[in-house]
Amino acid sequence: MTAPMTQGLRAAHKLMREIESEPDHALQVRKIALQFFDATAPLHGMGRTERGLLEAAAMLHDIGLAVDVSSHHKKSRDLILENGLPGFTEDQIKMTACIARYHRKAPPRPEHKVFRQLSFDERATVTKLAALLRVADGLDRAHCGSTQSLSATSAADRLALSVEQRRPCRTDIWGALRKRGLFEETFGVKLDIAANKPRGASRHDDVA
What's the whole-model pTM score? Predict the structure, then answer.
């Protein structure tokens, strides 16, 4: 990872710590998003720079909750733009802001604020990374840190995501399934998501 990217990620972490009311959730989503990125590398073909942008956006995706709950995805975008991320280029800051903005609600559209300022290739990258972030955020829907690790296997036009949980949490699996639409549309595959049942777990262990 380049020095500027490392500096930018440090800035993102600092901003998250200053504003985010639930840093544990932000860091859990970061962990899941990066695992998802790595597990699906053959599908998306992106590299270290894009991985860094995803990491920054994952840490900052919910900072807008400090301003407006119902539109917090847009406020997260605005706060990232207002505060900046030293080490990132201007375009990388805009991309990070847009990835965070699209972690929920409407998918990216050419007429959207900030997104329309990006190049064609940058828009494509934002859309891919936002698709990954949505699923990662869904996998901590209950904000209980249930997801420990994940792996992906592909066959034909389907991708199976296997989730290892510390304790069973159906809410997190439901959250990810609910937010898989952009991923399926962007990558042209059907995404199946299921939890591996931990050894010794019973149906009474579900935390949410």
Answer: 0.94
Estimate to the nearest angstrom the gap between the alpha carbon of 186 and the chain centroid: 15
What Rg value do the Cα atoms of the chain yield, rounded? 16
Question: Is pLDDT above 60 for 199?
Answer: no
Give CA–CA dist 145/153, Å, rounded: 23
Both tokens of 120, joined, read 């064609």
Of 199, 138, 191, nearest in space to 168 by CA: 199
- Asked whether 179 and 135 are in contact (CB, 8 A), the reply is yes
User: Positive or negative, the Cα torsion across 200, 136, 40, 161?
Assistant: positive
Number of H helices, E strands in the chain: 9, 3
CA distances from 178 to 88, 134, 141 (A): 32, 9, 10
Give the pLDDT band (50/70/90) at residue 202.
Answer: very low
